Amino acid sequence: MEIVFFILLVVAIIVTSAIVSGSEAALLSVSYTKAKEIARENPKDLKAISLLKIKDDLQKYIATIVVLNNIINIVGSIYVGVIGVQIFGEVYLGIVSAALTFLIIMFAEIIPKIFG
Ligand SMILES: [Mg+2]
User: Does 1 have pLDDT greater than 80?
Assistant: First the structure.
């Protein structure tokens, strides 16, 4: 049962961190001019208006995203380490840390940012 929780925790960290990182890359990849153009062409579209509002105050939103991404990655990893030691023993802390580091960099940072 503990192992199921462990796996779900790892998946939850990767998915939430990936969503946050993908959003960051997506927001940065749209130019302000393009966001303005989309909002002008779709004045009643809430998504278009929201995008322009975010681009208007981009620093604040990027800061929030970066803080959120780091909280998920750091606090999540510490929690995974603690649970991992309880399941596999202290000897495997290095392996759990290395595996999680690789998984987070690959699937919660690089790949979502490419798609974003
Ligand atoms: Mg991330």
Answer: no
Q: Locate the domains of the chain by residue range.
A: 2-29+58-115
Cα separation of 4 and 43, whole Å?
47
What is the 35 CA–ligand 1 centroid distance (Å)? Answer: 24
Q: Is the pLDDT of residue 93 over 90?
A: yes
Q: Separation of 102 CA from ligand 1 center, angstroms? A: 12
- Of 47, 46, 52, residue with least CA distance to 34: 52
Cα 42 to averaged position of ligand 1 atoms, centre (Å): 31
pTM here is 0.90
